[in-house]
Write a structure and sequence with these properties.
Strand order of the largest sheet: 4-5-10-6-7
Helix content: 25-40%
Largest sheet: 5 strands, antiparallel
Structural class: alpha+beta
CATH topology of the largest domain: Uridine Diphospho-n-acetylenolpyruvylglucosamine Reductase, domain 3
Strand content: 25-35%
CATH architecture of the largest domain: 2-Layer Sandwich
Number of helices: 11
Number of strands: 13
Distance between the termini: 54 Å
């Protein structure tokens, strides 16, 4: 059995100092880390300290400033789900976090922890990437801000330095003309890891012409990302059956381009196409 020393820093600065002095791992909500510790996960074999920051309330907030939404890294999924600001400004993010685990997990698990765990199936990631979110990282060396999409290196791996803490996620408010949705496919309706999911945001002119498209499937690429080819194809066009069909096909084609033909492709190709169709149709309010 692996044993770790437990530390509970009194402030964020102290937490950063401890991370710089130890081979520590940050404990936020713990819904992923505790499972990995019990399983003696190989990537944690060199860790000798667990640094609990869950009590640092300075990292738990949701606010709007200068046209940007700011979410503290320790904000729980439940707090995001229930936030009037998020429901108004990024409804598909509220919808995505509502599908995470159980009520117990949503009340304990944090948005920062979900990002740092870097699971390809993480439900909050597609809407956050569709929002072009940034993350702020802090260490004893200072702070840096990176596009969220850029921090993922491979499944369950990020470019964060061992002594960095994710302290904030931020994104620009969407125009009022933008409509969004999120769809998750799991083995069950609850308590299930996503087999696939997708976040879509579309912006329209008054005549229905699409002026911006953001399409982010989950669990189909090694790291989460937008499908720019499908997005660009939809620009400056009015929605039609043929447009939806072609854009959805382009999503599955991008999956195959990035991952190749695998044993799961026969299943994933038609399913991700249909999820994309469903998402676009939900936004358009059509069957």
């Amino acid at each position: 059995m692996i044993k770790h020393k437990y530390l509970r820093p009194r402030s964020l600065d102290v937490a950063c100092q401890l991370l710089s002095e130890t081979r520590g791992k940050v404990l936020a909500g713990g819904t992923d880390l505790m499972v990995q510790l019990r399983a003696e996960d190989e990537k944690l074999k060199n860790i000798n300290h667990v640094i609990d920051i869950n009590h640092l309330k300075e990292l738990s907030y949701i606010k709007k400033e200068d046209g940007y939404i700011h979410i503290g890294g320790l904000t729980t999924h439940q707090e995001i789900q229930e936030s009037d600001l998020i429901q108004k400004e990024a409804a598909f993010l509220a919808l995505a976090v509502s599908t995470v685990g159980s009520p117990q997990i949503r009340n304990r698990g944090t948005i920062g922890g979900s990002i740092c765990n870097a699971s390809p199936a993480a439900d909050p990631l597609p809407p956050l990437i569709a929002l072009n979110a940034d993350v702020k990282l802090k260490s004893v060396r200072g702070e840096r801000t990176l596009p969220l999409v850029s921090i993922f290196q491979k499944p369950y791996s990020t470019c964060l330095e061992p002594d960095e803490i994710l302290v904030e996620i931020s994104f620009k408010s969407l125009p009022e003309t933008t409509k969004t949705t999120f769809i998750k496919l799991g083995r069950r309706k609850a308590l299930a890891i996503a087999r696939m999911n997708i976040a879509v945001a579309l912006d329209f002119l008054a005549d229905g012409t699409i002026t911006e498209a953001r399409i982010v499937p989950g669990s189909v690429f090694p790291t989460p990302d937008r499908v720019t080819a499908a997005e660009e194809f939809m620009l400056n066009k009015k929605p039609t059956v043929e447009l939806i069909e072609q854009a959805s096909k382009m999503v599955s084609e991008e999956m195959i381009k990035r991952t190749g033909i695998r044993w799961s492709t026969e299943y994933k190709q038609p399913v991700i196409e249909n999820l994309t169709k469903r998402a676009i149709k939900q936004i358009l309010g059509v069957e």
